[in-house]
Amino acid sequence: MRICLGHFSRIALGWVLVAFASPVAAQQGAPSETLFRNVRVLDVLKGELGPATDVLVRGNRVAAIGASGKAAAGATVIDGQGRTLMPGLIDVHVHISFGSLLFPQLNDPKTSPEKLGTAMSNSAEQMLLRGFTAVRDMGGPIFPLKRAIDAGKTLGPRIWPSGAVVSQTSGHGDFRAPSERSRRFFGKPSRAEEYGATFIADGRDEVLTATRENLRMGASQIKLMAGGGTSSAYDPIDVTQYTSDEMKAAVEAADDWNTYVAVHAYTPRAVRRAIDAGVKCIEHGQLLDEPTIELMARRGIWLSAQNLIPDSPNMTPERRKKRADIIEGNARLWPMAKKHGVKLAWGTDLLFEPELNAQQNALILALRQWFTPAEVLKMVTYDNAQLLALSGPRTPYEGKLGIVEEGALADLILVNGDPLAKLDLIADPGKNFSVIMKDGVIYKGAQR
């Protein structure tokens, strides 16, 4: 499967990003304080609900929990009626650009930059309104959208951007059409490179430059392709990508900027090479064996995993064939990683099928096969926030996420019920999330 998106290059340069009427404008005059009365705070670390209490948000922080929280005159007051106040959800593996349109639409020359910009903005807004207040974007032209969200010009979650994926020639990020020849030999960048989707980089020097280009644009972490993939045309699943020296180049450049490299990899060989190179996070890993999982646990390497959905009607026969062993590996990976105490994070990794984005919350429920509701809720809030924090000073937002405590950032959801007792509540945010707050601003929920 190839991505040929050169006619969208203006998006990558930030020329087009559609802003539209949204609750952002309505919130500009909102009071600086919000008081949640009579709520039960979900302690995701203990896995329990606290007694009924009040929670005061001042500015973008949780200012007080309990009787000490005295709201100023004119504050927004929300009667929680004994409902659950929990941290905002976090998805650590999204591709907002690639997940916003169908694959044929992305390849269609008639699809304008404005259409893609609108689709990305709509995807980001719906993600926030599903309760996902923070995400890690793991590849694609995301910087213009992130800037627009942070500036209040459009709605969306906090974004930890990777920028263009870094891939070897013939790797998982080589999106060229058959007619597009190598930039290195023929001097012309591929359309996907111009678009900002990928850097095709071979050799230590090119990998260094690609990594530094992403860091220059504001990447909070670097995404490197270390093995074959299911949605790419040229690389079988079993292949290992990038030499140790090339991979070390990316790690050294990221380390100099006090952040880290995450790699796309499924196989033990690819993952072991990445670990030896100093990579700190493995994306996917469904084909890993137990010795490699044990190695990850000993070295403190993060596993950012997904419980990938079964094949859908929109998938090509080639992609279905490549996915077969990956889908089967879901059931082995999660319990094995849990057993050995690997640092685990969760994400969705939805691509080219925007109709599936609405399942983002429901995909969390698949984790119940291996984890208790308390463990699931901790993973998709606090644990995922710890992975975001791995970006260190390159973290784009100062403050603590994934927990409701005094001083933490005010990314909060008021849930109609107890998700510890009924985890299914989080799968229907339209019905069960009565208030969604990000950075102290209410994006869903009546004010009074």
TrEMBL record:
InterPro entries, sorted: Amidohydro-rel, Metal-dep_hydrolase_composite, Metal_Hydrolase, Metallo-dep_Hydrolase, OTAase-like
GO molecular-function terms, A-Z: hydrolase activity, acting on carbon-nitrogen (but not peptide) bonds
Signal sequence, renumbered to the chain: 1-21
One Pfam family here: Amidohydro_1
Ranges of residues in domain Amidohydrolase-related: 84-432
Gene3D superfamilies named in the record: Metal-dependent hydrolases, Urease, subunit C, domain 1
CDD domains named among the record's database cross-references: Met_dep_hydrolase_A
Keywords: Signal
Database matches in PANTHER family: ALPHA-D-RIBOSE 1-METHYLPHOSPHONATE 5-TRIPHOSPHATE DIPHOSPHATASE
Protein name (record): Amidohydrolase family protein
